[in-house]
């Protein structure tokens, strides 16, 4: 999804909207324009020549529900272990009675041991993604992104691997993420559940990206970008690990304005968000629904529409608030449709004062409903809290006005 190398506010806005409309989609990438803002090292490393750096902080201080309990999810999640590691684990299981935990061990110690995550390292390739059969070890999605061009697919994948090394992406879910709640409030986004085709539903409200709240919580754009990586890593490795899994994206444009979205901070975030997602998570969209779309969205869409592949155009649906939009949402999202997205309802949801919370996370699973407090969101937050506890850290409280 190549960003545009434009510097004016209007062109910058176009770039941001392009990013938001397609999110984890890919625009036609035959040109190299996306290299301008790519978040990656200056040199591309061999995917066989780098190793993971474990236990580093998530980021420097400067800078359709699974219905499975989060503890069980952590313990049973697919990791990046090798066949050799699995064999070793099997051999340990066949040990003698001397290997059995002493009977006088307390229940508390046993429970603590059982809560330890087994393997939360996830590499760039996975079983059945096509990399095992490819002579260069390239997953099929990368060929699709480059329309079958092996040279370009190999270059893009090598760059992706270098990016993963620079930001320690393979081990991101192992490490504590104390700013999880803060980032959730800075840029409202959530997994609402699953659509009728069992695809994950991801909702974003771009008009409510809150840079005032960011400053109040000593957070940065870098924090927010890496938070998105954390969320997407969780999505494609724990929540839905199938290599061909896709999602339905919903972009709620309620409250947006041309002037607001031409903000320089917003443009900077949009540029970096675009290049990071497009270069590293190709081919993951089923549909992208742009709802509550203002008139100027259609104008901008006509401008950048020629840059989209035909397959991408077919995935984008632009809707205006009203009965027709609500009918479409019910059709595409099914039972996972949050009330918050319907045209009728509380008028307060149209606005959000900068520096205030978008929502308050629930603490009990029984309180979950489709929306920001869906069961999927609850499980992901519990997972994050569990990792924080393993490092004797706690979630940072969100400072508001």
Poorly predicted runs of 5 or more residues: 1-15, 21-103
The largest sheet is: 5 strands, mixed
Rg, nearest Å: 22 Å
- Please state the oligomeric state of the protein chains shown: single chain
Tell me roughly what share of residues is in helical segments: 25-40%
Q: How far is it from the N-terminal to the C-terminal residue, by CA?
A: 36 Å
Total of DSSP H or I helical runs spanning 4+ residues? 15
Shape summary: globular
What is the residue-mean pLDDT, rounded to a whole number? 75
Spatially, the strands of the biggest sheet line up as 1-2-3-4-5
- In terms of DSSP E residues, the strand content is 5-15%
Q: What class, by secondary structure content?
A: alpha/beta
Q: Write the H/E string, N to C.
A: HHHHHHHEEHHEHHEHHEHH
Number of strands: 5
Layout of strands and helices, then pairs:
Layout (H helix, E strand, L loop, with lengths): L8 H14 L47 H7 L6 H11 L13 H8 L25 H6 L4 H17 L13 H7 L2 E6 L5 E5 L6 H6 L4 H19 L7 E6 L5 H4 L2 H17 L4 E7 L3 H10 L5 H4 L2 E3 L4 H11 L41 H16 L11
Parallel strand pairs: 2-3, 3-4, 4-5
Antiparallel strand pairs: 1-2
Helix pairs in contact: 1-11, 2-15
What does this molecule look like?
This protein has helices at residues 9-22, 70-76, 83-93, 107-114, 140-145, 150-166, 180-186, 211-216, 221-239, 258-261, 264-280, 295-304, 310-313, 323-333, 375-390, and strands spanning 189-194, 200-204, 247-252, 285-291, 316-318. By secondary structure, the chain is α/β, with parallel strands linked by helices. It has a five-stranded mixed sheet with strand order 1-2-3-4-5, with helices on both faces. Strand 1 (189-194) and strand 2 (200-204) form a beta hairpin.
């Amino acid at each position: 999804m190549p960003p545009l190398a434009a510097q004016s506010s209007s062109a910058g806005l176009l770039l941001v909207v392009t990013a938001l409309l397609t999110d984890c989609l890919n625009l036609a990438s035959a040109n190299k324009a996306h290299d301008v803002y790519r978040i990656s090292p200056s040199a591309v490393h061999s995917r066989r020549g780098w190793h993971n750096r474990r236990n580093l902080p998530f980021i420097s201080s400067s800078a359709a529900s699974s219905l499975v309990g989060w503890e069980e999810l952590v313990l049973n999640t697919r990791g990046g272990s090798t066949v050799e590691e699995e064999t070793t684990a099997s051999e340990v299981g066949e040990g003698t009675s001397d290997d059995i935990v002493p009977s006088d061990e307390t229940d508390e110690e046993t429970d603590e041991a059982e809560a330890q995550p087994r393997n939360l390292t996830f590499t760039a390739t996975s079983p059945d993604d096509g990399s095992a059969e490819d002579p260069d070890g390239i997953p099929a999605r990368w060929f699709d992104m480059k329309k079958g061009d092996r040279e370009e697919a190999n270059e893009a994948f090598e760059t992706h691997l270098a990016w993963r090394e620079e930001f320690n992406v393979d081990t991101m879910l192992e490490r504590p993420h104390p700013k999880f709640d803060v980032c959730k409030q800075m840029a409202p986004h959530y997994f609402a559940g699953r659509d009728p085709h069992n695809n994950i539903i991801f909702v974003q409200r771009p008009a409510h990206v809150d840079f005032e709240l960011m400053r109040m919580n000593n957070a940065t754009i870098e924090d927010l970008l890496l938070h998105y990586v954390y969320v997407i890593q969780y999505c494609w490795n724990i929540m839905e690990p199938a290599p061909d899994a896709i999602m339905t994206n919903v972009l709620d444009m309620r409250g947006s304005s041309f002037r607001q979205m031409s903000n320089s901070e917003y443009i900077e975030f949009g540029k970096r968000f675009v290049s990071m997602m497009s270069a590293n998570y190709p081919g993951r969209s089923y549909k992208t629904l742009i709802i509550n779309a203002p008139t100027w969205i259609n104008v901008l869409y006509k401008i950048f529409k020629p840059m989209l592949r035909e397959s991408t155009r077919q995935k984008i649906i632009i809707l205006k608030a009203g009965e027709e939009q609500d009918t479409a949402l019910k059709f595409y999202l099914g039972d996972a449709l949050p009330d918050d997205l319907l045209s009728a309802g509380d008028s307060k949801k149209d606005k959000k004062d900068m520096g205030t919370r978008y929502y308050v996370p629930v603490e009990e699973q029984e309180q979950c409903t489709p929306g920001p407090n869906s069961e999927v969101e609850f499980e992901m937050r519990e997972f994050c809290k569990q990792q924080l506890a393993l490092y004797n850290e706690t979630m940072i409280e969100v400072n508001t006005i």
